[in-house]
Design brief:
Oligomer: single chain
Strand order of the largest sheet: 1-4-5-6
Structural class: mainly beta
Strand content: over 45%
Number of strands: 6
Radius of gyration: 20 Å
Shape: flat
Order of helices and strands: EEEEEE
Helix content: under 10%
Low-confidence stretches: none
Number of helices: 0
Largest sheet: 4 strands, antiparallel
Mean pLDDT: 87
Amino acid sequence: VGSEMCIRDRFRLGIGGYGGFNIGTRQKLKYSREGKNVKDKLKGGYNTSSFVYGLSAYAGFDGGQLYAKYDLNPIFKDAAIEQRNISLGVRFDLD
């Protein structure tokens, strides 16, 4: 392979943090009313946090890894019960 980076037959592990801004929220509803399909699109603040930040990690072998992401900020401002996002998934690196 020469001087090219090769990810075959290697264990990979990554841990880090992230941050960003929530630039908009939308809600799309699709339902049936009196036998007709209805679509509603709503835009609004929904009392969500503007700044998003958290921790992330991944681990895997070759080009496929499992990842986890945890938001440290609550989803909604001024909520009676604080709720946070947790994301789990699979990621694939392409050569």
